[in-house]
Amino acid sequence: MSKTADKETEKETDKAPKKKSPLVMILVVTLVALGGGVGATWFLLKDQIQTEGGEVKKPTAFMDLDVFTVNLQPEDGDHYLQVGLTIKILQTKVGDEIKKQMPEVRNRLLLLLSGKKPSEISTADGKQQLSTEITHEIKESLDSEPMKEEIIDVLFTSFVIQ
Question: Is there a single domain that holds both residue 75 and residue 148?
Answer without folding.
Answer: yes
